[in-house]
Amino acid sequence: MADEKEQVFGKVTEDMDPFKKILIKVPGFGGYIERQKRRDSDKLIREYIFDQFRELEGRVSRLQRDFISQGEIAYVDDLEATAIKLRTFADRTRTATRGYSGLFDAVNVNEAELTQLYEYDASMLDLVDEIDHAIDNVESSVGTDGLPAAIRHLETKSEECIQAFDRRETVILGLGE
After folding, report:
1. How many other β-carbons are positioned within 10 Å of the β-carbon of residue 127?
2. Nearest 5°: phi and psi at 131?
3. From CA 38, how far away is CA 33, in angstroms rounded?
4. CA-CA distance, 142 to 151, in Å (whole number)?
């Protein structure tokens, strides 16, 4: 996950126009440019998470349609609850305040706090794989006695997404104090 974050931050830096490169040399503007790069990196990460979770939500919706067409309507409501959680998580991630403005507007950013914040972002990226595997497990459990447990596991993982976002917001609010 650290590599993905470094790639995003590197892309933002790489795309910087010559004027901004000059501004980095002017006293006072360097901090502004660094904050802006962090905001841009944050936005790219959140957009990536949003896109991934919308795809995962689509997979759950397809499972719902498959269950309905096969007459397995007993599981449709559970899958709908999961789809709603994934959609909520994706939407909250996408519409979160851009770039932790209160944090990045401060003159001195505590690196330990910033590292903690990026760790939360990395954990949210890890959730993409966890949800993907949970959906795979549901798909492979269709027609077996393990299907209810696989769906419960997917629901639990979906709830963990919401909780991860809530913890991230708590960190941001704690940093803004």
Report:
1. 23
2. -70, -40
3. 9
4. 10
Q: What is the CA radius of gyration of the chain?
A: 20
Pair of tokens at residue 177: 């104090």
Give the tens place of pLDDT for each residue, 92-134: 988 876 544 444 444 344 566 667 777 777 888 899 999 999 9
User: Distances in Å between the alpha carbon of 154 and those of 26, 129, 138?
Assistant: 51, 12, 8
Over the stretch 30-45, which tens digit does the pLDDT of each residue have?
Answer: 666 677 777 777 778 8
Three-state DSSP class for residue 108: coil
Count of CA atoms in the C-beta half-sphere (13 A) of 103: 26
DSSP label at 4?
H
The CA distance from 40 to 27, in Å, is 21
Structure tokens given for 147 = 């299907």
DSSP codes joined into one string, 75-97: GHHHHHHHHHHHHHHHHHHHHSP
